[in-house]
Amino acid sequence: MDSLLPAAFGAFHRLRVFLLLSLVGLLPHCRNPHRFGEELFPPTPTRVDTLYPQQVRQVFLPPPSTKNAPFVFIGQVEDTLVGQYQAGWATQFALGGQNIQFYAQGLVAVDSVVLELFLASAYGDFSAPLQVRVSRLTTPLSAAGSYDLNAAFTTDGQSLVLPGRDTLAFTTFLPGSYRFPLDTALGRFLLTLPPSALASEAAFQAAFPGLYVEAQPFIASSKGALYTVFPRSPSTALRIYYRERINGQEAPQRYDFYITDTCTWAYRLVRTPSAPPPLRDQLEQDSTLWRQRLLVAGGAPVGIAFTLTGWEKLTRRPVLSARLVWPGDSAFQAAYTPFYPRPNSLALYADTTAEAAEASWGLGEFFGDSAVFELSVPVQEIALARRLPPNILYLWPTGRTYTLQRWVAAGTASRRLPYLVVISAEP
Predict the structure, then answer these.
(1) Does the pLDDT value for residue 38 go beyond 60?
(2) I need a labelling partner for 362 at 20 to 30 A (CA). Which of 129, 139, 316, 373 fits?
């Protein structure tokens, strides 16, 4: 056995030398020593085509539905871009079960009723105090109804917020939950509802349609602010603190009414007619202006429509990559910074003969101050004649980002236009 070891080691050494010499002999024949096999599989020749827009124009979209929006608004703000807006929010509350019993006969007292709101963001002069008003809805909200930015909600006109506890103002705004004490009569009303009104969610919401929340500046000349509320947050709730008699003893109790998927809620965002014309109106009324500027905005939805030329250059080409780029432009920084605050995303829709403006080409991502859309799949289908080239492309914020504080600009139409970059393989 010992005599075999030197022979084995010698064979292993000769094998290592052979492999090393083979590798040294192979390297001079590689065009790139870091990419073995390039001689056998040379890279495919590629070609880059850029498709430019032939026509770009503004489009003014109808207001979207605000029903069951993931965020809602309260407040009032005046802005040079959008004018003066007032926002209010109407909502139902969930009962939290069926055949709930509050034992009204044992109710001793309602100590407090609190409307707690999770405020996620603020837009405008949030140091200016706003007066918060909370009123009872008199007309139930409809789960089948359509509520847009101009929806009207009927209330009893009486504010439930306790005097001196109705102010909303910040030196430095921080997202979080904020509590507004309400008249305890609301708590007594809810805790003494008859059993029939507590038998189901529908019965409860018919007996108590919900609340309408709004906020207005104490000082008429104030520019004001808008606040974003998250209805589905656990920190957004109507809370009742009360005492009831159990076995002859007073016991503190608490009941929370949350906003769940069984509820309907909606907000309104209405511009005051007497406000100065905002940039959105100027663009709509002045065709010369909207040829000079491109704007995508929330609040009063504004988008752009454009056509691309040069689709014939892609006929029957294997598309490796296709990206639509919409660059930002420093020319707009005098009014506001491009793409800040950013929307969640921008949507690109295509209007073709077959699809009639209903084909979504996806959502854009932000790189620096540019929005970029990955379009390799639809462009490849066009190159292979499986899809018609679009007559018009539309670009605007996605439905749930039609919000006042999310503005997106893309410079002048003559300087910063969208363009499509396509990398394809040579046949």
Answers:
(1) no
(2) 316
